[in-house]
Write a structure and sequence with these properties.
The chain has a single domain, classed as Nonspecific Lipid-transfer Protein, Chain A. The chain is built from seven helices and five strands; from the N terminus they run ααββββααβααα. The longest helix has 16 residues. The radius of gyration is 13 Å and the shape is globular. The model has no long low-confidence stretch (mean pLDDT 92). The chain is 41% helix and 24% strand. The chain has a five-stranded mixed beta sheet. It is α+β, with helices and mostly antiparallel strands. The N and C termini lie far apart (28 Å).
Length: 129
């Protein structure tokens, strides 16, 4: 499953490159974000709104600004075409007790719309219509 998630994040990066409005929203976002799913770590390195690379962890040497930690089942619910209540938003992981958001929360909040829309790119295309 870990390889599948890396491929999915990379695919989300390709979708991001095709969304001019997201590129504008993320124009000032150049950070590394840690996404941890069931203990498996993925470092998403963004530069000016582009996803430059996805690196699998664990790594104690890779600095990150904020982290989202959750489980695979919760992430699968989030990535449904029409997510059930409390799984439509990244903060739903916290609200339901299925995840944590850690690190520099101010950076997340300043770029919240960009990052939330990026994470939603993992949903099937028909959900975006």
């Amino acid at each position: 499953m870990t390889h599948d998630l890396r491929v999915r994040f990379e695919d989300m990066g390709r979708k991001l490159a095709e969304k001019p409005h997201l590129k504008r929203l993320g124009a000032l976002f150049s950070e590394t974000v840690l996404i941890e799913i069931d203990g498996n770590e993925y470092y998403l390195a963004f530069h000016r709104g582009d996803l430059e690379r996805v690196t699998e962890g664990p790594s104690r040497q890779t600095p990150w600004r904020f982290a989202i930690r959750t489980d695979a089942e919760a992430l699968d619910k989030f990535w449904q075409p029409i997510p059930e209540p409390s799984f439509h938003d990244i903060f739903g992981f916290v609200k339901t007790g299925r995840g944590r958001i850690e690190g520099d929360i101010l950076v997340l909040v300043k770029n919240l719309r960009f990052f939330k829309e990026f994470m939603a790119l993992g949903r099937p295309e028909e959900a975006a219509a």
